């Protein structure tokens, strides 16, 4: 088949894979290639056992793979034939040198830019899909256009706003698509090329076009605002626990104010995921870099409050369980950073497990999708203190406490009478996600401690 346009995405991860699968399924006349240096990932995308779990993803991939959706490890050839190149490589927090612990590590990004330059023999539109510090496109353009072949590159920003667990829904029906480009004739034409891809299924009024810096900064700002809401409600949860107020009632009451709105006000054990912390720290670093220490301190507090919330949860467990958990079996229900994903990057459960092991508890980890990742994440801890158990009923057998880490539907529907019967007494339940019915569990016999709401103790 003759394709009218050739799109490449470098990086076949949580963003590159689903995003390109949706573009391919909606634009059958466009050839979409996803390239990655990770051969296993590329092989897995071409099997029934996709490398990431995401509801609805299988169907979308199946609808286009082999037709106009292709996966490859041959990044160089894929670059050579592409018209539009999305770059969706990882941009983690830097762990070394200047800016360590805050700045973005742009090494994968820059390597990709240089490879694009080396393998290009015709003009290309290069689109930043990864989340990047504001003004990265400037550096990208300088690297790309320092070429001998006189090939021209237009660098655009098209940040991704999907959330894991709802990626396909978010991609098919986005609140908005944001495309930033240079305010030149060439820049505007390049933006229009990318707009025309999304316009296959996204209403035009939801496709925003801005200058490049606004687009880059909007992505960091969106994540900072979302995370800030969680830290704000979690800070109030701490106050609720001291005063007898109920954080769910407070969230409901304030959320009915249209100016505040009801979403992202669920008190929890804290936010996890690969991006909120990384992107806020990146914002903090940028503010410091541009001489704005007060602005940096303001945003850094969102991350500190999140860490405090996790530690507070563990301290509460220890104090309720008679100030010692040495040798006690504690079942963690869920390890993924949120429901409907197997992703465990920066999951609060990881920090909780580490703190519990530090206190010499025996931790039993259960999760319907994330046990393999949990095994990898916890590999450096003493394995005789950790059990990995897919069945939550078995995980709870003989446990002193169950702690809910992830809000999987499955955990709402378990037979807690059966679980109670199999546990050590007194049996504790710490609900880090506020998904269970405190009164019903108390009636069964548990001492129950949710977040920011009155618990019920039998002791
Ligand atoms: P990921 O780690 O799942 O995927 C990145 C992929 O890039 C990996 O498979 C890696 O092998 C590949 N890669 C790295 N260097 C490469 C190179 N030189 N050539 C070819 N492939 C290379 O990361 P992700 O979660 O998909 O995130 C990617 C970007 O998107 C990040 O900047 C992130 O902040 C942003 N983002 C992520 C999400 C999310 O929900 N995960 C949402 C919005 C934005
Ligand atoms: C988040 C944003 O929602 C996306 O828009 C963004 O594209 C993405 O980050 C990114 O840049 O990576 P994601 O991290 O996948 O998406 O998932 P969220 O639904 O935002 O949840 C993040 C964390 O916050 C989870 O641990 C979740 O359990 C927690 N959370 C969320 C709460 O504790 N309370 C809430 O009210 C909402």
Structure report:
Strand 9 (329-333), helix 13 and strand 10 form a beta-alpha-beta unit. The strands form 3 sheets. Strands 3-2-1-4-5-6 form a 6-stranded parallel beta sheet, sandwiched between helices. The longest helix is centred in the middle third of the chain and has 32 residues, at 212-243. The chain is built from 18 helices and 14 strands. The chain is 44% helix and 14% strand. It has helices at residues 16-26, 39-45, 57-64, 75-81, 107-119, 136-145, 167-172, 185-198, 212-243, 247-255, 276-289, 293-320, 348-358, 371-377, 392-396, 409-412, 416-422, 438-444; strands at 5-10, 30-35, 69-72, 84-87, 124-128, 153-157, 177-180, 207-210, 329-333, 362-366, 386-388, 401-404, 428-431, 447-449. The model has no long low-confidence stretch (mean pLDDT 96). With 459 residues, it is α/β, with parallel strands linked by helices. Helix 9 packs across helix 11, helix 11 packs antiparallel against helix 12 (293-320) and helix 12 crosses helix 13. The chain binds nicotinamide-adenine-dinucleotide (NAD) and uridine-5'-diphosphate-glucuronic acid. Nicotinamide-adenine-dinucleotide is lined by residues 10-16, 36-38, 41, 75, 88-91, 108, 111-112, 130-131, 160, 162, 164, 274-275.
List keywords for this structure.
6-stranded parallel beta sheet; alpha/beta; 18 helices; 459 residues; binds nicotinamide-adenine-dinucleotide; binds uridine-5'-diphosphate-glucuronic acid
Helix-strand blueprint:
Layout: E1 5-10, H1 16-26, E2 30-35, H2 39-45, H3 57-64, E3 69-72, H4 75-81, E4 84-87, H5 107-119, E5 124-128, H6 136-145, E6 153-157, H7 167-172, E7 177-180, H8 185-198, E8 207-210, H9 212-243, H10 247-255, H11 276-289, H12 293-320, E9 329-333, H13 348-358, E10 362-366, H14 371-377, E11 386-388, H15 392-396, E12 401-404, H16 409-412, H17 416-422, E13 428-431, H18 438-444, E14 447-449
Parallel strand pairs: 1-2, 1-4, 2-3, 4-5, 5-6, 7-8, 9-10, 9-12, 10-11, 12-13, 13-14
